[in-house]
Design a protein that fits this description.
The structure holds three protein chains of three kinds. Chain B is built from twelve helices and nine strands. By secondary structure, chain B is α/β, with parallel strands linked by helices. Chain C has one domain: Rossmann fold, CATH 3.40.50. In chain C, helix 3 packs across helix 4. In chain C, 31% of the residues lie in helices and 24% in strands. Classes of the chains: A alpha/beta, B alpha/beta, C alpha/beta.
């Protein structure tokens, strides 16, 4: 078996240590470890984290291979330091049967860059009317445990209640895309000062908050756990904080872009800033950061949403919603949380690896960096600062809102069960 | 230096006054035996209309022809070209034919801005109305009409609308005319009040440089000009107001209400009017109603804009506006 | 677009400081009187004359001429202005400017003798534009041209019917007319163009 010695890495941002990988597992963590028979990676003070886990990725395959495939998406994931991604169900056909989730799972196995855990649709065709065969998807080779109609809200309170109850049988979790549909008809951006001026249809915060409030109460009533996707408003934070204080089993995620960008950017009418839920205000951004720091929001998830160029190179109303995020997520989190002093690297490991793995029940991921654990690791050059250049993305799509923006941090190495998928910033 | 007219908010006070003064000279051309100027000879202007608007298109076309521009009309209403890709492709196709300026009407807010800033084309872009965003030439012709009526055609030269009180009534939420007028009238020193049921005011309106009222009667007595905005009957179905009757009772302008206005005050409407809804026939046909003048003035103002953007080596208007004003 | 620019080759404060007067207030009054008499003489009483000044200073000169003509003929002489901006052939070489007023006297110009009045005759392009503009306004019986100064260097086959002063100049020189209505005093200044490109023959 091959050995790799990572020398002088700040494990979770701590004192520099050596980490020896033997085969698929971490053999030893300590100082002055012998390099005998091992390939040596000089970490030179870089930060070593457990491989990142993304609970919210759109890999687009099957159906929209022009924007992303499982292969290109997992390559993008490895570039961004991820070793496990959860693939959302809104593909064509929708991942609402055992057949489709197994296909995605198998494509992930074949890619070799990153583990792919399919998410199953809650309702047939994401239509919100009829429960999909959740049990069959769970029992399939893909072993689905997370269910979501992401892109659409499970808006019917009865269907949501049933789904929350039903998945308890196999300890599944429903991840809700919180968007009251009637309040967001024709919505194009956050409803507020900017939308009033730009004449774009408003997506009010209350459309998200009302659904979250309903769902945490439903979860409490039926004794289920519920996960809230891409929470985006200060009001949502308050509701989740209240729910947790009441002991409701709720977890929540925030995207990197909602931690950094605001609706002021929409003044450019450039659809790279068009995303769902929409970019909110400065006040929301600050509340989200604080909530991620204090644990009200449990995890960062990318909502990586690749779109082909032509779907963004048009007027705002005609453009698709979404941004790619796998390859910039860690940099944005460093910029907004680490460099601001809100979170240390151990906190980053918790929010981007440990917790998402727990919520998604991803075995072998989000584990401590210690002897005997699977060697899923990410090495980050936190001292780096540079401009984002989408031309260098491994993703098939380039719809990033960060083009030309200077961000800190760069993932230089990623190991998936001991196998290097990224070396010196280059995919293997 | 901007080369386009996208938003009334892009105009400085001096830009706007220059346009109004130029329009005043253009208006005189209409009185001549030959209503034509050679100024834009050899320049090609395309009227790219993705939304049906015969009035605005004809007004622009008249302005372009009076300035001797070559005019191409492209009406792309309908499904096949209403998608985003087509805006870019259509614009590029037209530019490949050697178009100097694109006058664009589009149902999507921001489409003219995208056209002007995405590097798709080099031509000048003039916004002839985009979604619920802006309609700057409408605001200019409204301001021109107000200046003529309230200050005077000659007395108004070089002047703005300092201290004039303008009330806009109706569907502010869905109105590009309202947004453009609030911006331009504020720039020109007028005091603007918006009157509408709360459902037809956008969230965020409190940051606009104007007053907001839900009560028409109390503002009428303090208005130099009252502009009524069209209220589409369909809005009723989306619960913006209960019934047509209730709307016109609370926010419509009839003869009794008009009588409360000061003697010099005028009634304006960007058209098309919905008689019996926001305005009664009595008011629409009265001498205080400027609807027909607004149409005439539209041609003069659009001539002025075309001349000032296209007439020379570089545009004479639309200097970058200091950001603190916004 | 800028008439002054055409006549003096751009605004040059330096040139102005060295400029020397070639006509002073009394001289200007005298030549305008002479031109008025010439108009009456050539137009056989000037009973159908319409004076149209070309903005800015041509308009003031036209009004002064009208006053003098009224003194001579004891009749009201129609006077107006003709803005030629939109008819210029060099529009695309400069940013467009605010338009000046075109004011045609009430009875129009059809069948009348129009005398165009301008301050300086130089390339002749302004007058060509003025003839085009007139064409869109009506059909005069005849068109004549009166200028305060003719500095030569014509680029078109145009000549003045009435000239206040023939002033042979080089292209390196500038001619600037100042009138009390606009500039606070009456004078015609001849100056040197400092290092302007093309100024060296």
């Amino acid at each position: 078996m091959s050995k790799t010695l990572i020398r002088g890495a700040k494990v979770l941002g701590g004192e520099p240590q050596d980490v020896l990988i033997d085969g698929t597992t971490i053999a030893e963590v300590g100082s002055g470890l012998s390099a005998e028979g091992a390939e040596v990676v000089e970490a030179d003070g870089k930060v070593l984290l457990p491989g990142l886990v993304d609970l919210h990725t759109h890999l687009r395959e099957p159906g929209r291979e022009d924007s992303e495939t499982v292969l290109t998406g997992t390559r993008a994931a490895a570039s961004g330091g991820y070793t496990n991604v959860f693939a959302m169900a809104n593909t064509f056909p929708v991942a609402d049967t055992a057949g489709v989730v197994e296909q995605v799972w198998r494509l992930g196995q074949e890619s070799g860059y990153c583990d792919v855990q399919p998410i199953g649709a809650v309702t047939v065709g994401l239509e919100g009317a009829k429960l999909a065969e959740l049990g069959a998807m769970h029992e399939s080779a893909a072993g689905v445990t997370v269910f979501s109609d992401d892109g659409k809200c499970v808006h019917d309170a009865v269907i949501m209640r049933r789904a929350l109850e039903y998945v308890k049988a196999f300890n599944g979790v429903v991840a809700q895309h919180a968007q009251e549909p009637r309040l967001t008809e024709g919505a194009q951006m956050n409803e507020g000062v900017v939308s009033a001026e730009l004449g774009l249809g408003g997506w009010p915060a209350v459309a998200e908050e009302s659904i979250i409030a309903r769902d945490v109460l439903l979860a409490e009533h039926v004794g289920s756990r519920v996960h809230i996707c891409h929470l985006s408003t200060a009001g949502s934070v308050e509701i989740v904080r209240w729910a947790k204080s009441r002991g409701i089993d709720v977890t929540a995620e925030v995207t990197p872009h909602h931690l950094l960008l605001t609706d002021e950017l929409v003044r450019s009418y450039n659809p790279v800033y068009k995303v769902n839920p929409p970019l909110r205000t400065e006040r929301d951004v600050l509340a989200l950061r604080e909530a991620l720091a204090d644990g009200t929001i449990d995890i960062v998830a990318t909502d990586h949403a690749p779109h082909p160029h032509e779907d963004k190179d048009c007027e705002w109303a005609a453009a698709a919603m979404g941004m790619v995020g796998l390859e910039t997520a860690l940099s944005v989190v460093q910029e907004t949380m680490v460099d601001t002093g809100l979170l240390d690297w151990a906190g980053v490991a918790d929010r981007m690896s440990v917790k998402p793995a727990q919520i998604g029940q991803a075995t072998g991921h989000g584990r401590p960096v210690s002897a005997g654990e699977p060697a899923n690791l990410t090495l980050v050059d936190a001292a780096y600062r540079g401009q984002v250049d989408p031309a260098g993305f491994a993703s098939r799509s380039r719809n990033t809102p960060y083009e030309g923006r200077e961000l800190p941090g760069r993932v230089t190495h990623t190991w998936l069960r001991g196998k290097a998928t990224l070396v010196d910033g280059k995919l293997t | 230096m901007q080369r386009h007219l996208i938003s009334a908010a892009d105009l400085t006070r001096d830009d706007a006054v220059l346009i109004l003064d130029t329009a005043e000279e253009m208006a005189r051309v209409a009185d001549r035996p030959i209503k034509k100027l050679p100024t834009l000879r050899g320049r090609t202007v395309v009227n790219l209309f993705f939304e049906d608007s015969t009035r605005t298109r004809i007004s622009f076309e008249a302005a372009e022809k009076r300035l001797s521009a070559d005019v191409i009309n492209f009406t792309a209403k309908g499904s096949s070209v209403s998608k985003g890709e087509s805006l870019k492709d259509t614009a590029q196709t037209l530019e490949a034919m050697g178009v100097d300026a694109v006058v664009i009407r589009h149902g999507a807010s921001g489409a003219p801005y995208r056209l002007a800033t995405s590097g798709w084309i080099d031509a000048h872009v003039i916004n002839a109305g985009d979604g619920t965003h802006q309609h700057p030439t409408q605001a200019l012709l409204d301001a021109f009409t107000m200046r003529r009526r309230l200050v005077g055609p000659d007395a108004g030269l070089g002047k703005d609308l300092d201290g004039r009180r303008v009330t806009l009534v109706g569907d502010i939420l869905h109105s590009r005319v309202a947004r453009s007028n609030v911006d331009l009238l504020h720039t020109l020193g007028a005091e603007v009040t918006l009157v509408a049921p709360p459902t037809l005011l956008p969230v965020g309106v409190e940051t606009w440089p104007c007053e907001v009222s839900y009560d028409l009667d109390s503002t009428l007595t303090k208005s130099d000009a009252v502009m009524l905005l069209r209220v589409q009957r369909e809005r009723m179905n989306a619960a913006f107001f209960p019934t047509e009757r209730e709307y016109s009772r609370r926010y419509g302008l009839d003869g009794d209400r008009m009588a409360k206005m000061p003697d010099h005050a005028i009634v304006m409407h960007p058209g098309p009017m919905v008689r019996g809804m926001e305005i009664t026939a009595e008011v629409a046909d009265s001498g205080r109603c400027t609807v027909v003048e607004q149409v005439t003035n539209g041609v003069s103002v659009r001539m002025a804009v075309l001349y000032l953007l296209l007439g020379g080596a570089e545009p004479a208007v639309a200097h970058a506006r200091p950001t603190e004003e916004k | 677009m800028d008439k002054q620019q055409e006549k003096q080759g751009g605004p040059q404060p330096a040139a102005q400081s060295e400029a020397r007067p070639v006509l002073e207030g009394p001289d200007i009054a005298r030549v305008l009187t002479r031109i008025a008499h010439e108009i009456v003489e050539r137009a056989k009483g000037a009973d159908d004359v319409v004076l149209l000044g070309i903005p800015t200073r041509g308009v003031f000169l036209a009004r002064r001429l009208a006053d003098k003509l009224e003194q001579i003929t004891e009749r009201k002489i129609p006077v107006g202005s003709l803005d030629i901006t939109m008819y210029r052939d060099d529009l695309r070489m400069h940013p467009p400017r605010a338009l000046a007023r075109t004011e045609i006297p009430g009875d129009g110009i059809d069948g009348r003798l129009v005398v165009l009045v301008d301050d300086v005759l130089f390339s002749g392009r302004t007058i060509r534009a003025a003839l085009d503009a007139l064409n869109d306004i009506g059909r005069p019986r005849a068109v004549q041209l009166a200028v305060l100064v003719d500095r030569g260097h014509r680029e078109l086959p145009i000549r003045a019917d009435y000239v206040g002063k023939n002033l042979p100049t080089s292209l390196r020189e500038t001619v600037k007319v100042q009138l009390a209505e606009e500039d606070g005093r009456d004078t015609v200044l001849l100056g040197a163009k400092p290092d302007a490109p093309g100024a060296h023959p």
